[in-house]
Write a structure and sequence with these properties.
This protein is α+β, with helices and mostly antiparallel strands. It is built from 14 helices and four strands.
């Protein structure tokens, strides 16, 4: 269940109260006239079942509440209420499967920003993966996957395409391109520095690497893994029980490939650099394809599950 805090212009409070009263997904309605100061208006509080949140917010927007007042959304972790239980029974579907599109947009929009923190994480993740490639160490590859932040912009790109938020799409593309470019450039420089210090050498790249050789040898399974990662990533983003480690699954198909390409470039191993770059592109394309399709399926399912309870 979610909690809505609405600042409503006084001339629309009656319409908002009527809207909330006629919605099966809404409960715990509280109206505090004249208590809001900035913006000025009435404060309306309510709880709403996740399955009905997007429809309710859309109706509030039609009343101009967002423009002249405000709508704030908060997650409710625990609810002990018979009224809430009745609301959940009235609304078809499961809350864990419901997509609150406004919540998804806000989350992914923040993740798509090109910030110094994002670039730093991308550089650190790629550099760690580069060392992991040379040492053929899965522990370092996993460490790089944990650090890698590329799931955010990839998710933002998918949400932007499905929702028609093209500014978000552009921001996500800029963040991804800049992030991977920065990671590759720094990893090339890091590899050369470590080589000059005698800590690594070209033979480590060209030698047998049974654990990490898959990174630069794309095949049909690369596409399959990318698709599965995209599905898991989108479900983790939209589900009420999101798993924080799903971003690791996304990074396993991207950050190591970028790192392998950087190390190969540093040593002039063209075929391995090309293979790694191809692996990266295949996986990004697969993740985006699966992510967009997953969101489209969820949106269609939500519309087919249209609730008759709204008056």
């Amino acid at each position: 269940m979610l909690h809505l805090r609405i600042i409503c212009p006084p001339d629309r409070t009656a319409a908002v109260e009527e809207l909330l009263a006629g919605d099966d997904a809404v409960t715990h309605v509280v109206v505090l006239p004249g208590t809001a100061r900035d913006p000025h208006g009435d404060l309306v509080l309510c709880d709403v079942v996740r399955e009905g949140t997007s429809d309710l917010i859309a109706a509030l927007r039609e009343l101009g509440v967002e423009r002249d007042g405000s709508i704030m959304l908060e997650k409710v972790d625990t609810t002990l209420s018979a009224a809430a239980a009745r609301a959940e029974k009235r609304v078809p579907g499961l809350g864990v499967d419901a997509v609150v599109w406004e919540e998804v947009e806000q989350t992914t929009a923040a993740e798509s920003e090109l910030s110094w923190a994002f670039l730093t994480f991308m550089v650190v993740a790629t550099a760690i993966a580069g060392i992991g490639v040379l040492l053929d160490q899965p522990i370092l590859i996993v460490g790089a996957m944990v650090v890698g932040p590329d799931f955010g912009p990839l998710a933002a790109f998918c949400v932007g395409v499905v929702r028609g938020r093209w500014t978000m799409v552009r921001r996500a593309v800029v963040a991804l391109v800049a992030g991977f470019a920065a990671g590759i450039v720094v990893t090339v420089a890091t590899t050369r520095l470590l080589d000059a210090l005698g800590l690594v050498d070209k033979s480590m790249l060209l030698g047998e690497r049974p654990v990490t050789s898959f990174i630069w040898q794309p095949d049909a399974l690369s596409w399959v893994v990318g698709l599965l990662a995209g599905i898991a990533g989108m479900l983790s983003l939209t589900s009420a029980k999101a798993g924080t480690l799903v971003g690791v699954l996304i990074s396993v198909t991207t950050v190591p490939a970028a790192a392998n390409a950087a190390v190969a470039l540093a040593y002039g191993v063209t075929n391995e650099a090309t293979g790694s770059a191809l692996q990266l592109l295949i996986n990004i394309a697969a993740i985006v394809t699966a992510g967009v399709l997953t969101l489209l399926v969820q949106r269609t399912a939500g519309r087919l599950r249209a609730r008759p309870g709204r008056s």
